[in-house]
Structure formats: structure tokens, C-alpha cells
Amino acid sequence: MPPREPSVRQCCGGAPALALLREAGSLFVARMLTVVTTLRSQNRNVLEYMTKAIRAARCDQSAPSLLPETAVEQENLKMAA
Fold first, then answer.
1. 35-49 pLDDT, tens per residue?
2. Model confidence over 16-33: pLDDT tens digits?
3. What is the SS3 assignment for 20-71?
4. Would you tell me the crossing angle of helices 46-58 and 15-41 to the nearest 10 degrees?
5. φ, ψ for residue 13 (rounded to 5)?
6. pTM score, whole prediction
7. Domain coordinates in residue numbering, the chain
8. Taking the CB of the first residue and of the last residue of the chain, which one, N or C, has fewer CB atoms within 10 A?
């Protein structure tokens, strides 16, 4: 009989750790759905945005804006004035 693999509960410290993983996973899914819904409502490419966001995070830069392009341009004009 092959040796048993340790369960997730044994590896992660039990039920409280699993609850934290579930909460973090739920928060991630909620945020991703918000991003996808926002981009689709603006007819923007989700994959393109996510690629830019990941590159920005890896290069220690700020994430691209989720605001519509015209709103971003207007905000930039206000800041420049």
C-alpha cells in the first residue's frame, strides 16, 4: 500500500488556515470579476489590461487605470492646470 499524502488540513494548520485561504480566494475572485466587468463595459481588452497590470506590478510601477480613457485624460488635464 503506497504511503498516504498529508491532507490539506495537516499541511495548512487546520480549519482556521483553510478559512483564511477561502476568504482570500473569494476576495481575489470578487476583484477579478469587478475588473473584467468594468473593462467589458468599456469595450476594452481584458487580456491586454491584465498583461499591462502584471508587467507594471513586476516593474514596481502603478497599475493601469480602470477609469474610461476620457476620464483619465480629463483628470490628467486637471492635474496639469
1. 999 999 999 999 999
2. 666 667 887 888 889 999
3. HHHHHHHHHHHHHHHHHHHHHHCCCCHHHHHHHHHHHHHCCCCCCCCCCHHH
4. 120
5. 90, 15
6. 0.60
7. 8-80
8. N
